[in-house]
Design a protein that fits this description.
CATH class of the largest domain: Alpha Beta
CATH topology of the largest domain: Trna Endonuclease, Chain: A, domain 1
Largest sheet: 5 strands, mixed
Number of domains: 3
Oligomer: single chain
Helix content: 40-55%
Number of strands: 7
Protein name: Transposase
CATH architecture of the largest domain: 3-Layer(aba) Sandwich
Distance between the termini: 34 Å
Strand order of the largest sheet: 1-2-3-4-7
Length: 292
């Protein structure tokens, strides 16, 4: 199953195709300045064989060296299958797109995976390799740790990718706080996808809750799905407390099971029905009777 961090690590390049230009500078690779980028289909399946898909594929146009293909793979852990699929991707794309140069970028979130991904992949004999693939790797070992708001504001896409790749960094709290502060003056259309991509990229790590807390500080600024979710959680908690207070005031005893049923409920319409019934209920069963 594809994880949220996996999706965020490559999808950010679809949202911001020009991001690779800044990433290549960070990684120390001297490439011509892109003038445009086009998202291409990711399906690399042939007529008969097993289906193969690269995570993200972009056609990058440059002013001096012409176009090239950028294949982006988000890699969460070492995977022996990539030693055969990555060379296949590059060879297939080179053939399918009439000999266009192909560059493979692998984005990782941990040092061990990044070190593994950066190793050249060789096909052929030990004495004479026929094909050698050299992936370009972006990860916590070479992406910048951005804790300066002005720096983050200059390039929000790069700051977002940097935060995602440093999800396990002990200083990730400062990194996320910087990104959040940099977004406060950004237009809503820019802030929304970055808020969501960052949340997706952090997955279920502890840093994900730190990001939620930062976003929740001023949810009026963020109009994203995640902020709506946070507001709903707040409403649900308020209704749970109100329901418990009403039942207590009316002298209605609650079992541990009933109390757990109330405090674990996140369904706002259902909580509202329970609150309405609690106003006239004489027993706990009167509150929940129609929901069994």
């Amino acid at each position: 199953m594809v994880s949220s961090p996996h999706e965020a690590m490559h999808r950010i390049f679809q949202e911001y195709p020009g991001l690779f230009s800044r990433v290549s500078e960070v990684l120390g690779v001297d490439l011509p300045q892109p003038i445009s980028a086009t998202v291409l289909p990711t399906d690399l399946t042939e007529a008969k064989p097993v289906e193969r898909r690269v995570d993200t594929l972009l056609r990058i146009e440059t002013e001096t060296d012409g176009p090239f293909l950028l294949a982006i793979e988000a890699q969460g852990k070492k995977d022996r299958r990539k030693t055969t699929s990555w060379p296949y991707y590059v060879s297939y794309l080179h053939n399918r797109y009439d000999g266009l140069p192909v560059l493979l970028l692998v984005v990782c979130q941990d040092h061990a995976t990044a070190e593994w991904a950066a190793r050249p992949l060789t096909i052929g004999l030990r004495q004479w390799p026929t094909l050698t693939l050299n992936p370009l790797v972006a990860g916590p070992h070479n992406m910048p740790v951005i804790t300066n708001v002005a720096e983050a504001r200059k390039d929000l896409a790069l700051a977002t990718l940097a935060a995602i790749t440093h999800a396990d960094n002990p200083d990730v709290g400062a990194i996320l706080k910087t990104l959040s502060a940099a977004l406060r003056e950004a237009p809503e259309t820019i802030a929304e996808p970055i808020v969501e991509l960052t949340a997706q990229g952090l997955g279920n790590r502890p840093a994900a809750q730190q990001w939620r807390n930062l976003v929740a500080v001023d949810t009026s600024f963020y109009k994203s799905f995640m902020s709506e979710e946070i507001r709903d959680e707040g409403r649900a908690q308020g209704m749970e407390k109100g329901l418990l207070l009403i039942l207590q005031a009316r002298g209605i005893a609650l079992t541990d099971e009933t109390r757990e049923k109330i405090t674990s409920c996140t369904d706002l319409p259902l909580l509202h029905r329970w609150l309405t019934r609690a106003a006239t209920a004489t027993t706990a069963e009167d509150v929940f009777t129609e929901d069994h």
